[in-house]
């Protein structure tokens, strides 16, 4: 049976539900996927029933079982002493400068032995990683012991800010395949990778299951000029919440009836709540905190417009969710977002950090219910055509086969995946 491992930093994770969806899509297409995670998820995070099931069946590297850890290292040292020593040297020399980087790379080596040993016990010969940072370092080191290969999905933008520290070029060199979530993402990887490695770079979108995001029929009688905004994002500086609050404050001063529900949690929550009070809009802004995937549907159903004024993004899956619910989206013209959102068609794109342009877009959408309806319908159409997780899962399967990770496609996935691969603009190998 075709079988691979998926390795992530935290699994299941509230902010990375797209990883779980991809895993489930691959399983539905006939691939056996074992989930590995460096750390356990936060016990206070909301979990759905699927999260609970995935949690029970995931192998966690940390915190380590010290006896098993010692056994794994001694066993590998006894079976492959030369490879153990040379891989340790590789790990400690292929790293950024500094004592801190030295220590982190040593930790990655220790974790890589645990991952490799568990894969060997299960008869798994390939590991795929989401994000090209710490987990990819662990997988890259594990692959050097032999008996397994690794591939990764790159998202950005964080890894592109310091590609040398994250050893991006080296990871691309040693991987058998790199899945990029957008054309923009692929172009950034190309900027750091060797030309000879460009054929490894394949575009495979993240996605959602449109059937799980059924649109609701919104009221035909709506108050002119009023609008209910929804934002779902981690409360961190890069998501641009402060810009949104400033825009709402100015609109409120002008008499525009705008309210916003902000779903999510993070380090900036206290500061954002304080900012809303200072600007006198605390009655117009609701901080709902983190919610599970089972609960999020209600927030989509009660909103008129989804807004995400981020400063940096890959291709936000939460935008796909909102579009699948036939919500018009208001977001920033950055990075991979224009590949998902067609400006003026399925939503509105504004410059990042520009309060005035964000205000203008909110007013435009608030005053035209028919425009919102039309954009919502176009958004769902786009997601169904290009960001359906089932189709993209089959496409990823085809990429695995093309890269030699899998011997053949599961019978029920082969035809559909072949169609998707031939549509994409891959570099010829």
Q: Which key terms come to mind for this protein?
A:
429 residues; alpha/beta; Rossmann fold; seven-stranded parallel beta sheet; six-stranded parallel beta sheet; 18 helices; 13 strands; disordered C terminus
Descriptive overview:
By secondary structure, the chain is α/β, with parallel strands linked by helices. The protein has two domains: 240 residues, Glycogen Phosphorylase B (Rossmann fold, 3-Layer(aba) Sandwich); 177 residues, Glycogen Phosphorylase B (Rossmann fold, 3-Layer(aba) Sandwich). The chain is 47% helix and 15% strand. It has 18 helices and 13 strands. The strands form two sheets. A seven-stranded parallel β-sheet has the order 3-2-1-4-5-6-7, with helices on both faces. A six-stranded parallel β-sheet has the order 10-9-8-11-12-13, with helices on both faces. Strand 6, helix 9 and strand 7 form a beta-alpha-beta unit. The longest helix has 24 residues. The two termini are 27 Å apart. The C terminus is likely disordered.
